[in-house]
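Researcher: Let's run the pair from yesterday's discussion. Sequence first, then tokens, for each.
Model: Starting with the first of the pair.
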Amino acid sequence: MADVLLRQWQMLRLLPRAPRKTDAGSLERKLVDAGFEIDRRSIQRDLIALSASFPIECDNRSKPYGWSWSRDGVPFDLPAMDVQAALAFRVAAQHLEHLLPSSTRAHLEPYFKQARAQLSRAPGGLADWPGSVIAIHAGPPLLTPRVDSKVLEAVHVGLLEERRLEVLYRRRGAREARKYLLSPLALVYREGIAILVASASEYDDALQFPLHRMSRADVMDTPRRVPPGFALRDLVDGGEFDFRLSPGPMLLELLVEETVEFKLSETPLSLDQRLDPVAGGPTRLTATVADTNQLRAWLRSFGAFVEVVGPATLREQMAREARATAQRYADAPEGGHTTADVPDA
């Protein structure tokens, strides 16, 4: 009896969530690899019996029949979700609201739903606890681009099963999509945008493919090809996702007003950041940072509250932009606009 129970638990864990599905033959191979003695007919009987007690469903439109957890079914795991885990999921749901595409959040919704139900049954003030905590994001909450659910599913399968993908992808600025054969290497979420890191055909370059620009993705039978020495951490640390503008670190020197000084004293730019008061003036800040487009956008966001002192090339760029911005406002009538030239960032 214990062996049957363990086998059925393992079977439930092997079932994917809809729209993905698996068949009895695939389950048989995985269960045998896990050390269970089972035949296909017994698996089919178990699945039918389990469907009476668990939210699993069968797609019998074609053979072999496909089995899966229902899209909205409560996740099954042991031990069950406790109150602390439910609180963590509620905070995660708030934090991820503007970071993940809606199609990805939909995959997590059964867990969020289970967390809400668990907290609603909790004693005392725990049921009202989510109303006492909120996650606030810096800047206006931008709407994330829509990702086709079938594309996202294919990318996940390609990554998990280490197989190549054939995709229809429209490059930035292009009018038409082109077909690419990709080896999926990693999936990165940057400010809510899902980006597939992949190498194309037989090349070794790790390129970035935002998923919302894919109109189709098919998982191939051929294994992916991983470039020699590839490591996602190296790409992140190297600034590839922040659009690095020059190699190596940069010593940044700023003059910052009091409000900015206070913010950066609590959340430093780097481990070697220094804040040195200047008599009768703003505070001098020095820090070693990566030279990226993201850094420049961050500096612009402070306007006149931050002055770039060095490096000299960055100071001159920021000065040109400031002069062009001032000229634009000086020349424009109230509520109007001008076509003043703005140098490239």
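Model: Moving on to the second of the pair.
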Amino acid sequence: MTALFLVLTGLLMLVGYAVGLYFGDPLVFMGLGLVLAGGINFVSYYWSDTIVVKMTKAKIIQESDNPVLFNAVQSVALKAGIPMPRVGIIDSQQPNAFATGRGPEKSVVVATTGILSTLNAGELEAVIGHEVGHVVRRDVFMSSVAATIAGVISFIGNIALWSTMFGGGNNRNGGNALFFVAALVLVPLGATFVRLGISRSFEYSADEYGAKLTQNPAGLASALEKITAKAKLKPISGKPGTAGSASGPSPATSSLWIVNPFSGSSLVELFSTHPSTPHRVERLRKIGQEMGVAVY
């Protein structure tokens, strides 16, 4: 994982260097990108849970509002040895769940109403275990860092390319034109692939954590298959009125959910925020074998 973040940092430096060839000192552009990334990461660290809850239209609940979901989160948190996260719910027929927050000391576990009518108790606990895995490993914050760096790279590249198209900049090194264009097109694409790779890696790790914490890899595998099947039939489009509220969750939150809940998600795993469900189930089978538990 550290290597992937180093790759992103290196790509940021590379695109800054390329821009500097036409628009000034490369160090200036590298510095601006890092400052912007630092500012967004600061906001993400302290307020990511509040921002995501608002983006998904989740409602924070108490035990009396939904005892089944609240008690499932409480039970898994006790097993993990972390403070009780806040619990949120989204009124949607699609079964799904996610976690957000900077870590165990400040986190939220959110589920849709549809998950309670789709999964049995063991499957629900396994899904909550997956989400608590993200909390314990601080995946949400790390994903925000990766997304921010990739976003800065794309932003700088797009601004530089548009400026060049309208006559901005000066090519003091005429032989570098090809490098300049290639860097500003290919580097952002590469950064996106790295970010998606980080997101998929987190999903695999959270699957393993949840399976081992709840001692139920079969339950998690079954839950993933049920959620995926329902997500295809009832995708959350992110458009007003689709999630049972004034407006649906933002597609920008797609990487947070246990299964991508939005319509129009990529059919090619390389371009997806999540590994394919068959691949995840296959890994859970191997984890089950290590634990001496059958996963069908």
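Researcher: Give me one sentence on the second I can quote.
Model: The first strand starts at residue 59 and ends at 61.
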